[in-house]
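Researcher: We plan to redesign the surface later, but first we want a full-length starting point. Tokens attached.
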């Protein structure tokens, strides 16, 4: 697109959120990647590059670290479980012995029982509901919120929903 979608979103909700964009590839005279927006300032931002085999698009994880938690976002290729090893290794190195909870959300392009999600479950807990479809054109869940298994307590999920429509907004 010819505009910075994450910045446009943050501006549309008042511009007070901190955001971090991590580009993965060049695309249509711009860049394509992943972003995170949080209604809190003061994060240390970085990204984890995920190179992929020839013929596939490189991926990336955008990370925002606060004093008391970490939030990250990604968009993965559902047929490449090796991506999880890269993400998990980076998180183990930085947060393996930490009591700080680490959350990862995104479009994993993988069904709940796929090899890829089984690989995630070795070191991550799936917090989101997986029984509902998360995109309109596929009858399954492919989008998730996960928590890294380190020394932090696992978050107690009190509700989990899938947004099925937006009733307001325009570009």
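Model: Full-length starting sequence:
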């Amino acid at each position: 697109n010819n505009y910075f979608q994450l910045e446009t979103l943050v501006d549309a909700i008042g511009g007070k959120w901190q955001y971090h964009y991590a580009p993965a590839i060049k695309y249509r005279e711009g860049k394509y990647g992943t972003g995170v927006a949080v209604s809190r300032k003061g994060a240390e931002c970085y990204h984890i590059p995920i190179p992929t085999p020839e013929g596939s698009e490189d991926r990336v994880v955008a990370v925002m670290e606060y004093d008391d938690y970490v939030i990250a976002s990604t968009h993965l290729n559902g047929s490449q479980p090796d991506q999880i090893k890269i993400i998990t290794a980076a998180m183990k190195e930085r947060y393996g012995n930490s009591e700080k909870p680490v959350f990862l959300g995104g479009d994993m392009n993988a069904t709940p029982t796929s090899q890829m999600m089984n690989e995630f479950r070795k070191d991550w807990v799936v917090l989101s509901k997986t029984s509902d479809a998360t995109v309109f054109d596929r009858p399954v869940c492919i989008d998730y919120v996960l928590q890294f298994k380190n020394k932090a307590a696992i978050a107690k999920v009190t509700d989990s929903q899938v947004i099925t429509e937006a009733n307001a907004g325009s570009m």
